């Protein structure tokens, strides 16, 4: 059983925040390709197309025959051969985290490798291996026990690779929506200490407000993403208290470019979906990244929920698709910027939602509950990229294989 972590209620204001050093960004192209798979939670290793040798760490050619290597899903099972604990290092990142256990593992599919170890694994144990992203976005192998145990996710080393909501203070940018509210309940169920729920217009009551405002772990706060002043004011008050920030705001209207859409709808979509996200990141990320190295209450993640049409465009939802494409670009830029500070940036790409704004689109559609559960899973697993619903998964798979063809397929 993993020892349960104690969460302090307040940070001592006299204690200087630690600078959060991150591991080196100098990685090969092959290692960065592994990071892309790790971001989705896939366990893939390179397999030689000539001699079928499975190798690790990532390389450009097969170490046995110089054949071409391709990424393939592999069995996660391994055995721990040897372990050691690092007590002293010149590496600035690990200096802050010693003692740190690592070990040599023998993967069932062949190669031996170094892996970070969960505190419950011992030499000789059968393991389940994950490829995970560290705070700067580099992939690393993490060895977990095969049997699930109590508080397993609270292991100190494992928690450095994830963003579990347990014991965290979380801000949701738009609490007026069903997604914002379902997510709030799921976060509390997952152990969040408090959820600050943004409300863009405190004079206008919203559906579900009465029941959610009575919850002891929820605080409804003024936050309007269309106003720079409102976002700044909110960040001055809550920027120092937020550990995880989730952007649920989205402006969705049907309409094409030439005939049915209006220019005002495009402007509204850009202002909330693009400028709103930028205002939020500009106001909160500096304060959050400054606290990402704190030992007791570190800020750990920024998560954005956006449409899968960001990848392909959509003729009947042109303003949503265009603003989502810009949103995805902003998130990618932000992820790169935040990787220097260790604040993790997550994206949840969703298919059309079962709501009044997507009536023109036939099923399958996703529900607010599905989205909320996927967000929790991605935070718990440290999975930077999550796809929700069959439409999003299907589009992403096709887009990964052939982006131009997938964009053309959206034309009627
Ligand atoms: Zn080979």
Could you characterize what this model shows?
With about 400 residues, this protein is an alpha/beta fold. It folds into 2 domains: about 30-160, no CATH class; about 170-410, Rossmann fold, CATH 3.40.50.720. It is about 30% helix and about 20% strand. The protein has 11 helices and 15 strands. The protein has a 7-stranded parallel β-sheet, sandwiched between helices. Helix 5 links the parallel strand 10 and strand 11 (about 220). Helix 6 (about 230-240) packs parallel to helix 7, helix 7 runs parallel beside helix 8 and helix 10 packs across helix 11 (about 405-410). The termini are far apart. The relative contact order is 0.11. The model has no long low-confidence stretch (mean pLDDT about 90). Bound molecules: zinc ion (ZN). The site of zinc ion (ZN) has 8 residues, from loops.
């Amino acid at each position: 059983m993993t020892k349960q972590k104690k969460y302090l209620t307040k940070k001592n204001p006299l204690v200087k925040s630690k600078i959060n050093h991150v591991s080196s960004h100098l990685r090969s192209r092959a290692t960065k390709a592994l990071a892309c798979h790790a971001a989705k939670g896939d366990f893939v290793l390179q397999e030689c197309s000539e001699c079928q040798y499975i190798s690790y760490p990532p390389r450009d050619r097969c170490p046995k025959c110089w054949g071409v290597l391709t990424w393939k899903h592999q069995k996660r099972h391994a055995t721990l051969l040897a372990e050691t604990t690092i007590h002293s290092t010149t590496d600035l990142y690990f200096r802050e985290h010693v003692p740190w256990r690592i070990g040599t593992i023998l993967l069932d599919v062949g190669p031996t490798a170094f892996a970070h170890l969960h505190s419950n694994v011992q030499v000789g144990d059968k393991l389940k291996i994950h490829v995970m992203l560290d705070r700067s976005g580099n992939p690393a192998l993490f060895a977990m026990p095969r049997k699930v145990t109590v508080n397993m996710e609270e292991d100190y080393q494992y928690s450095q690779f994830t963003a579990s909501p347990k014991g965290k203070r979380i801000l949701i940018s738009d609490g007026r929506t069903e997604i914002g509210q379902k997510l709030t309940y799921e976060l509390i169920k997952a152990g969040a200490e408090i959820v600050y729920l943004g409300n863009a217009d405190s004079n206008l009551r919203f559906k579900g407000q009465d029941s959610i405002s009575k919850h002891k772990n929820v605080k409804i706060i003024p936050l309007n993403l269309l106003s720079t002043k409102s976002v700044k004011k909110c960040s001055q008050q809550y920027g120092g208290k937020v550990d995880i920030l989730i952007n649920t705001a989205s402006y969705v209207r049907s309409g094409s470019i030439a005939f049915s859409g209006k220019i005002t709808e495009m402007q509204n979509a850009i202002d909330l979906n693009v400028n709103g996200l930028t205002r939020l990141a500009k106001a909160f990320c500096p304060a959050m990244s400054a606290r990402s190295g704190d030992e007791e209450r570190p800020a750990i993640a920024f998560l954005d929920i956006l449409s899968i049409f960001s990848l392909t465009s959509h003729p009947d939802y042109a303003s949503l698709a265009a603003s989502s494409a810009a949103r995805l670009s902003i998130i990618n830029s932000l992820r790169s910027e935040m990787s220097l500070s260790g604040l993790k940036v997550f994206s949840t790409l969703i298919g059309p939602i079962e709501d009044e704004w997507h009536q023109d689109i036939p099923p399958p559609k996703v529900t607010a509950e599905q989205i909320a559960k996927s967000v929790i899973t991605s935070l718990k697993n440290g999975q930077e990229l999550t796809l929700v619903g069959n439409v999003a998964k299907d589009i992403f798979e096709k887009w990964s294989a052939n982006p131009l063809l997938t964009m053309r397929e959206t034309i009627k």
